[in-house]
Each structure stands twice: as structure tokens, then as C-alpha cells.
Design goal:
Number of helices: 6
Number of strands: 4
Order of helices and strands: EHEHEHEHHH
Strand content: 5-15%
Shape: globular
Helix content: 40-55%
Length: 182
């Protein structure tokens, strides 16, 4: 059996991240075939999801540079208490420890860091005013229930304007999208 060529690699912390990421790629017209996306996420109960994402990021970054397949690495990881800048510094430090060059503009890599967590973005996309220092926005009953949220975000992305006041981590994500995926 021939191995399929993967166009996108989505590295994420959990099923909610996966559902959000897959839907966003589809809504923005980047992926029309779901088999063009390979998802890497930790198994439940297997340690720190953030650490898993960081470790797999380094491996996938290096593998992408060696690959003959044109692919894009998309990372979706919560900012928790360190935020976007802190998480980006941790990713760079993980690369340095592994002897892997940090992400460059030539790499097909986009990093999205919802802060405190993805539920902050979901609450914002529900129309709430959110504070990124608040960690306890409600979770969706099922991860797939984020469809309307992602459609709203896609509309804002196409219009190149978020509803104000927008969470700074989502503003950073839009800049990342514009600079790395558009």
C-alpha cells in the first residue's frame, strides 16, 4: 500500500483543538480533502499535552525540512499562563535543546496560541467580551460543536477585521495566518 502524501500536519493538544483546526482549514479553503491533513495529538491521560505538542513540533519541523513533499505544519497549543510570547519562547528553547534550527520565514509553519485556552476564543466568537487571564470559560459539550464559531472567525478573517475588543492572542493568530498561510 502506497503511503499518502500529506499536505498539512496539525499538531494540537486535544480533540477541541483538532476540531477547531480542521474546520478552520476547511472554512478558509486551504483544505478540501480531509485526507490531506495528518493530526498529531496526545492520547488521553498520557502526560502533559503542552509538552507533547512542543516535542512533536521539534520533530515535525525537522522532518518537514527534509521532506520532498511540500507541506505545512500547523501548531495549535494553549498559552496557559505564559501567553503567546512565552509559548513561542518555549518552542524556540525546545528547538535549541534538540539542536534544531528555530522556525524561519522559509519554513511552512504556522503557530496559533489561544490564551489562556481555546475556550477563550470560543467565548469571544460567541460574542462575549473576554479576558485572557481568565482560565475558566465553558467548554463545548462536543468538540465538533465549534462549527459556528469557526465560520464566524473565517468571515472575520476574510474581512481582515476582528470584532473589537479582540483577544490579543487571536489578533496574533490572525497575523500568523496572514503571514504564513494566506
Amino acid at each position: 500500500m502506497a503511503q499518502r502524501r500529506v499536505q498539512y500536519v496539525l499538531v494540537c493538544e486535544d480533540r477541541q483543538h483538532e476540531a477547531f483546526g480542521r474546520r478552520f482549514l476547511r472554512e478558509m479553503g486551504l483544505v478540501t480533502n480531509p485526507y490531506k491533513v495528518r493530526v498529531e495529538r496526545p492520547s488521553l491521560g498520557r502526560g502533559s499535552a503542552e509538552r507533547f505538542v512542543r516535542e512533536v513540533y521539534v520533530q515535525e519541523l525537522e522532518a518537514g525540512r527534509r521532506s520532498h513533499v511540500d507541506r505545512t505544519l500547523i501548531l495549535l497549543t494553549d498559552g496557559d499562563n505564559v501567553g503567546v510570547r512565552g509559548r513561542m519562547q518555549q518552542l524556540a528553547a525546545a528547538c535549541n535543546r534538540a539542536g534544531v534550527q528555530v522556525r524561519t520565514d522559509e519554513d511552512g509553519v504556522a503557530v496559533f496560541v489561544p490564551t489562556w485556552n481555546i475556550e477563550t476564543w470560543l467565548a469571544y466568537l460567541d460574542g462575549e467580551e473576554v479576558e485572557e487571564e481568565f482560565a475558566n470559560y465553558p467548554k463545548l459539550q462536543r468538540p465538533r460543536d465549534c462549527g459556528a464559531h469557526v465560520r464566524g472567525l473565517a468571515e472575520m478573517c476574510r474581512g481582515r477585521a476582528l470584532r473589537e475588543p479582540a483577544p490579543s492572542s487571536l489578533v496574533a493568530a490572525c497575523q500568523e495566518y496572514d503571514g504564513r498561510l494566506r
